[in-house]
Amino acid sequence: MNNDPVANNNKKTWSGRFSEPVSELVERYTASIRFDQRLAEYDIQGSLAHAQMLCQQGIISQDDLMAIQQGLSQIQQEIREHRFVWLQELEDVHLNIEKRLTALIGDAGKRLHTARSRNDQVATDIRLYLRTAIDDIISLLKAMQTALLNLAEQHITTVMPGFTHLQVAQPISFGHHLMAYFEMLKRDSERLIDCRKRVNQLPLGSAALAGTSYPINRELVAELLGFEGVCQNSLDAVSDRDFAIEFSACASLIMTHLSRLSEEFILWMNPSFGFIQLADRFCTGSSIMPQKKNPDVPELVRGKTGRIHGHLVALLTLMKAQPLAYNKDNQEDKEPLFDTVDTIIDTLRIYADMLSGVQVNQQAMRRAVLRGHATATDLADYLTKKGIPFRDAHEIVAKTVQYAEQKNCDLNDLELQDLQQFSQLIEADIVKILTPEGSMQSRNHTGGTAPSQVQAAIERARQWLTV
Ligand code: ARG
C-alpha cells in the first residue's frame, strides 16, 4: 500500500494505519476545497518563500527549488485560467496544489512539505489573504470618505434639523451631519491599520505545533513574504485566529456605521421627510404600487449588517473552547471571514457611488427645522447670558414654546412683543438668534456646527486623506 496520502487520491486512506476510507458524506463534510480554493494565490506565494528558504538553508537542492518554482508557476497559470481541476477527495487547497505539483515535477514536489505542516501553512495563507483584504478595504473606506467630503462641501451652509430621540433638537449644517460619518469611517480605518500589524506576523515554521527539527530560517521567510515579524510561539501561531476575530470586529463596526447611515437615508427618502433622493439605480419600484420608489440598497446594507455581526459571533464561538494547538474547528474560520470581506468590499463600493448621486432638497430640510421649535435652546442661552440662571431660563422658554404651540406656529415665528411677554430681557437682537442660520452660526468652536467650523473640519479631513 502506498503510504502517501497525496498519491493515494482515490479514496484516500491517509496511511497504512487506516483500514477503511471515509464515506462520501464524511469526505464532503470534512473537505474545505469548495471555499478555500480562493487561498490558492497565497498558498503558492507561501510555498515559494518556504522553498527558497529550504534551499538557502541546504535542506533541499537548487534543482529541487527550480523544479518547485516552475511547477508552481504552471499551477498558478492553470488556476488563473480556470483550467485547474479541484478535487474534493483531496480535501483542501493545500493538498490539491501539492498533488498537482507532484504530478508535474515528481519527488521535488513531495519535498516541498519538508519542515512544514498544513497547520502553519493555512494560518500563513489566511494572514496573507487578510492583509490584502485589509489594504483593499482601507482604500475603499477612503473612497467613500472622499464621496462624503464632496457632498459635505456642497452643504456646509445647508441647514437641517439635528435630532435626538428622532425629535427635532437643534438646527445643524447638513455638511456637519455628513462629516460625523467621515469621523466614524476614519476610526474604522485606523482600527484596521492597527489590526493589520497583528495579522502581518508569520506563523510558518511552527509546523504542526511544536516547530521543526530542520535548521529553518523563519526571519527569511517573513522577509520574503513581507511580514513584519514572526509569531513567537509555535502553539499559538497554528491555533489562534484572534487576528481574524479582530478583523471581524472591525468589519462589524464598519457595517454598523454604514447601517446607521442607511437608516437615515431610508428615513430621509420617506416623503414625510423628503430630505433626499437617491439615484434611481439604487432603488426599485413595486410590482403592485406604481408610486413606490424603494431604497433597496440602503435597506440591504442595513440587513447585511446582521450577517457580518453574525460572523463575528461565529468566529468567537469557534475559538472559545479549543484546547491548544490546532483543531479542525479552525477550518470553519474561512466562510465567515470570506463573506465578511466580500460584503464589506461590495458595500463600500456601492456606497461611494450612491453618495455621489444623492439629491438634496434644501427647502424640505429647512421647513423641517422650522417645525420643531429647534431654536428653543438658543433662546434659553440668550436669557442665561443676560443673567438668568439656566434652569429658570429653561422654564421661561418652555412656557414660550407652549404659547407658540397654542398659536400653531414655530418659536422662530413669534413677534418680538410676543416674546417680551415672557421676559423683559428679550430685545430686538433676538430675532437673528432665533433663526435656524443664526443658531447654527453660533455653535462656533472645534467640533461645532457653525459653517466656518464645518469648513475647517472638511479641510482637516482632506489633509488626513492625503497621508
Ligand atoms: N483545511 C484545513 C483548515 O482549513 C487545513 C489545515 C488542516 N490541518 C490538519 N491537520 N488537518 O484548517
Features:
61% helix; elongated; binds arginine; 467 residues; Ribonucleotide Reductase Protein R1, domain 1; two-stranded parallel ribbon; Fumarase C, Chain B, domain 1; two-stranded antiparallel ribbon; single chain; Fumarase C, Chain A, domain 2; 20 helices; mainly alpha
How would the blueprint of this fold be written?
Layout: H1 24-30, H2 33-36, H3 40-56, H4 62-80, H5 93-105, H6 107-111, H7 118-154, E1 159-164, E2 167-173, H8 174-199, E3 201-202, H9 218-225, E4 229-230, H10 234-239, H11 242-269, E5 276-277, H12 296-320, H13 334-356, E6 359-360, H14 362-369, H15 376-385, H16 390-406, H17 416-420, H18 430-433, H19 436-442, H20 451-466
Parallel strand pairs: 3-4
Antiparallel strand pairs: 1-2, 5-6
Bound molecules: arginine.
Arginine binds next to helix 7.
Major pleated sheet:
2 strands, antiparallel
**Low-pLDDT residue intervals, each spanning 5 or more residues:** 5-9
CATH class of the largest domain: Mainly Alpha
* Alpha plus pi helix count: 20
Name the strands of the widest sheet in spatial order.
1-2
Can you put this structure into words, describing what you see?
- This protein is about 60% helix and about 5% strand.
- It has 20 helices and 6 strands.
- The strands form 3 sheets. A two-stranded antiparallel sheet has the order 1-2.
- The two termini are about 60 Å apart.
- Helix 8 packs antiparallel against helix 11, helix 11 packs antiparallel against helix 12 (about 295-320) and helix 11 runs parallel beside helix 13.
- By secondary structure, it is mainly alpha-helical.
- Arginine binds near residues 32 and 331.
